[in-house]
């Protein structure tokens, strides 16, 4: 079948309102937010389906013609996972924006894959409940993308990643089969739990069209403090104390190393809540159920941390404004464009107890290779997740060489080359640094079983099994 | 290769201390705790491996000879998932009892698959942390069995099921390949999250040999009340109030229908904490961080529930003894042998808001078919999980006919035929009552990809793809 016939078939199945072909394809579908832009291709067409049946029609056609399919959500990914390949059909989920049901008894929300994260958060809030996933792209990213990348963000410590917030899925397989498992129960052991094949697999095993999300009760109190400590050993002692005394209400434990703290303050152009000169800064947050007694206890724990010589200086937020100020300095650390551009960014994880050593090792190795290297470190330390920015004077930036230095260190510490952003195309080369050859082989076995002709998001995460 | 040669090969690979053959096989390996005993077979041999390498040696040999392999843990399963088939090799994990590491910084424990749940709980407690999975068989069941059945139990509402408490696994595949992914980080998106292929798949896709478990901070307060309400609508109103006011500390919400409450009291032979005549009894528990203020708030919520006309009568536990008394009546509901024997037992889940209707429908349909039918209902309602016991006068008990009545109702309510016990052999026939044909086909695709010759736990969960 010639390309023009294929396009006509697409139009016949979806209708002209839902398909753009060739030169009519909006160029925004060519790339996502990934800075280190992977090489992209020109899509043959972009389809905007309205439901699983239309997705199925597209996949059946593409399967028959072995035409690659790349699913796109809000295009806010940071690993190039939604980058089109030449001649592919892009499935853009942006017309599938229905919130189908909020069940306050079950504590669930059933949505189409194209709803934005923020819309879900707001709908949960309006129903008196909480959808706890939260990340900077909330207004643009779509739930389907959160699912396919297993998104993380700010509240993982307390509520888990996206995977932990999904009860049921509707998925379209590579051959167009629609698998509907819109489970609403917390407990369900009826056979294999198939949803995990599609969460965090970046559109390489199927296309998610609907999801049942798990809602949580709203926390009724928030206590926040910014603490300064001498070194990473004190960070660990503070974490131990917080876990022990806060009894499971600990919801954030964000650590900033001194250099990133200094740069974030400079970028903000006003004094940070605590002075410089300390070994690390920790934003501690607890979400509980009663503000007054919770705040009292939180204060007592801080007091204890002083007495035990763990914390050198601290401020406890007394208002929403102060809380916001603490989070602003933390969030500014993540804006590499303002504090360390042009830099290579990393999103890795390391077992919590060894993150201090890991940071020192990275600093040493970077300095040994590039005496003018600058690097910044901060992260959701209780989750093991560290974000790193590295800049050297070399022009152009030796991205690959820097990658190798950092990922080799990750490998030595049994860490992960991707804590929350996924693998996409950008990190594929480095997957073996944290996953064994046997595990990669098993991923390829699964890929071959679910997508034997390799039409789904080709080139991402793992390569197909070669004959 | 003749059977005797095969056995010799086994002995050569594992050593005589780790293998029992033919008549020397201990008969306890023939069945688990399942009451409705599925037909079992005679194992050719039982192997007691000490590590993944020995498991791998056994699997390579069995794969070469297409010999079935059945993995056994503590043999406490309730769906016949560990029942041997004729001529199989049983892999008993009971010698793999090492706790390899407790990492208090990462909040993890690395164990071999043969450690009992209770040993894990105790080791976590000794380290000042909590391993929250808890169920009646804690002293006998092994972590490997908890993993392969995705065990649930009493604290799912707050901490999730076994799946949510595992960070990494070591698994041996059907061909003997050892896949080691002993991840210790909460955040890790490095490729497909393969562990979910082995959690809750009842030994049909691989053999788990080691696991990294997630430990939680210990809760520092427990508040417990037993409440009497008029009907299921009041149950739902109480649940809404508890979720809203307890801000995520709600840890149990156990509902007993009047008949099961009455029988549990009779079995215990002493007056229950609340009188009869109410429409339902609810055990509410919250785990927080500070006993005195938490108890005060809990009491205020109960007070509010009276004022709003939700709760008709209630007792708030003022001591550990009273708390235990509340749980004793709840736990006695589950002892069908004492309260409704001989009965057919069910472990199903139903969307929370519709459980009341579901119970009424079951009662009506059972009465229509067997006018002398007796049935009891209780469960972890906030999880959607209901346990049912059904007895009729017919002798022998018409198990299959009763199954059909109940599972048809489950199907109509989009529930699950197995909330926490798994499918095994016992519920295989009923899997289509809560899983679509497309989903079952996908399970079979996965099974064929990971175990193409069908040697792993044959006959359990799903049938292999037929040529």
Automatic annotation (TrEMBL), chains A, B:
Highest rank taxon of the organism: Bacteria
Pfam families per UniProt: FAD-oxidase_C, FAD_binding_4
Domain FAD-binding PCMH-type: 39-218
InterPro entries: FAD-bd_oxidored_4_C, FAD-bd_PCMH, FAD-bd_PCMH-like_sf, FAD-bd_PCMH_sub1, FAD-bd_PCMH_sub2, FAD-linked_Oxase-like_C, FAD-oxidored/transferase_4, Oxid_FAD_bind_N
Keywords carried by this UniProt record: FAD, Flavoprotein, Oxidoreductase
Cofactor(s) listed: FAD
Assigned protein family: Belongs to the FAD-binding oxidoreductase/transferase type 4 family.
Full protein name: FAD/FMN-containing dehydrogenase
